[in-house]
């Protein structure tokens, strides 16, 4: 019965996201965003989790995409997204985070925001060995950073943006395991399609039935290509490789 329910939900989500993508002629969620260089500096958490990303020291390079989920125009609040992609152990890893609260309950609920500064979590759990966990990032900025792409691009031009990378058991305290530095030049528009199911983090696997059904939604939504006019250059020409 559980498998039938999961299959039905997976099929329903896939059909919904496919229809939404075709209706919008592109991605149904996070239609536009800003791509920055990302440099992950990892030092390990205060406890062992059983995954290299969380336990070992490393310097990793990749990209980050910050976006508004529904495309609601600012200054109105929207669910803000932070997507990271990096190379690790000869593999490409994707991590999707969205604005939530900090608390045990709040970290499992999406939270509309009017500023880029704040808490982003994976919302859905990961499994490392026999441990369930959530991943998160906290954007540290000396001054308020409105959730507009112009403000974000200008802040990145003024200097790297710093985020703390954190991990927690579903009901445990957050533990710092590294930082990520986001740097300009920035690319605006619709580059980079992220999929944490197809590009898992080495040593971590998406856990639970919700992760099982959302993979079908990503696949369905990403069958529809972005419109050409959604990708606009805001940095150097070679950044187009991240579409």
How would you describe this protein?
- By secondary structure, this protein is α+β, with helices and mostly antiparallel strands.
- The chain has a single domain, classed as Catalase HpII,  Chain A, domain 1.
- Helix content is 21%, strand content 33%.
- Strands 1-2-3-4-5-7-8-9 form an eight-stranded antiparallel beta barrel.
- Helix 1 runs parallel beside helix 4.
- The longest helix is centred in the N-terminal third of the chain and has 23 residues.
- The chain is globular, with a radius of gyration of 17 Å.
- It starts with a helix and ends in a 22-residue tail after the last helix.
Number of domains: 1
Give the helix tally. Answer: 4
CATH class: Mainly Beta
Residues in β-strands, percent: 25-35%
Helix percentage: 10-25%
- Return the average pLDDT rounded to an integer: 80
Remind me, CATH topology?
A: Catalase HpII,  Chain A, domain 1
Please trace the helix and strand order, writing H or E for each element. Answer: HEHEEEEEEHEEEH
CATH architecture: Beta Barrel
Distance linking N and C termini = 40 Å
Main β-sheet, spatial strand arrangement: 1-2-3-4-5-7-8-9
Structural class: alpha+beta
Q: How would you characterize the largest beta sheet?
A: 8 strands, antiparallel, barrel
Kindly state the number of beta strands.
10
Overall, the morphology is globular
Q: Quick one: CATH superfamily?
A: Catalase core domain
